[in-house]
């Protein structure tokens, strides 16, 4: 056995343990007088909480006298391993690969830089992202405003159509009364 705890072999389920499900048929419920088995189907009493239900019985756990801990496989030196200190040495780092998983579409990646110069990175930031940041936000805000305006117009149109339909129904009711 490899578990730290095992079921106590001396523990048994108590005789008064109620294993009937959590809900039982209501013993006080009576079939309604107007119940028709052919039309309404077989009558079944409604379910109520079982006041005697104690849950599923499980034996208490005791320490496992045979437990020795989690087994880990012993390790030995890999006879096929060859150390290569130059594995990441390349003549040129001219390419970069990016694996992007995204949930929301519309993400744009551009102006990627690989450098060890903070000054060079800051210069690119100033020339690209910082320069266009305000213009991009204004464009985004304008797009959001148009979306909101379109939603409000659609909502207003739907309300007007509902109001017109209600007025038509009222006119129809008046015509029926006139007849």
Strand and helix map with partners:
Blueprint lengths: L4 E3 L15 E3 L11 H4 L6 E3 L11 E3 L54 H10 L1 H50 L1
Helix pairs in contact: 2-3
Rg computed from alpha carbons, rounded to a whole number of angstroms:
38 Å
Spans with pLDDT under 50 lasting ≥5 residues?
none
Total strand segments: 4
Structural class by SSE content: mainly alpha
Q: Gap between N and C termini, in Å?
A: 89 Å
Share in β-strands = 5-15%
Order of helices and strands: EEHEEHH
The best one-word shape is: flat
Q: Average the pLDDT over all residues and give the rounded result.
A: 82
Biggest sheet, open or closed, and with what strands and sense?
A: 2 strands, antiparallel
Strand order of the largest sheet: 1-4
- Helix count from the secondary structure assignment: 3
Portion of residues within helices:
25-40%
Any overview of this molecule?
This protein is mainly alpha-helical and 179 residues long. Helix content is 36%, strand content 7%. The chain contains 3 helices and 4 strands, in the order ββαββαα. It has helices at 37-40, 118-127, 129-178, and strands at 5-7, 23-25, 47-49, 61-63. The strands form 2 sheets. A two-stranded antiparallel sheet has the order 1-4. It has a two-stranded antiparallel ribbon with strand order 2-3. α2 crosses α3 (129-178). The longest helix is centred in the C-terminal third of the chain and has 50 residues, at 129-178.
């Amino acid at each position: 056995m490899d578990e730290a705890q095992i079921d106590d072999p001396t523990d048994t389920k108590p005789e008064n343990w109620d294993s009937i499900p959590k809900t039982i048929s209501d013993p006080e419920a009576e079939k309604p007088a107007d119940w028709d088995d052919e039309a309404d189907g077989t009558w079944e009493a409604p379910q109520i909480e079982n006041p005697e239900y104690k849950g599923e019985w499980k034996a208490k756990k005791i320490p496992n006298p045979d437990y020795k801990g989690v087994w880990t496989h012993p390790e030995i030196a890999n006879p096929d391993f060859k150390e290569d200190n130059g594995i990441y040495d390349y003549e040129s780092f001219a390419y970069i690969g990016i694996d992007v998983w995204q949930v929301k579409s519309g993400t744009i990646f551009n102006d990627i830089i690989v450098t060890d110069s903070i000054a060079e990175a800051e210069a690119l930031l100033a020339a690209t992202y910082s320069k266009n940041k305000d213009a991009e936000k204004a464009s985004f805000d304008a797009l959001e405003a148009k979306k909101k305006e379109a939603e409000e117009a659609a909502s207003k149109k739907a309300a007007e159509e509902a109001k017109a339909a209600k007025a038509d129904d009222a006119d129809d009711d008046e015509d029926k009364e006139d007849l």
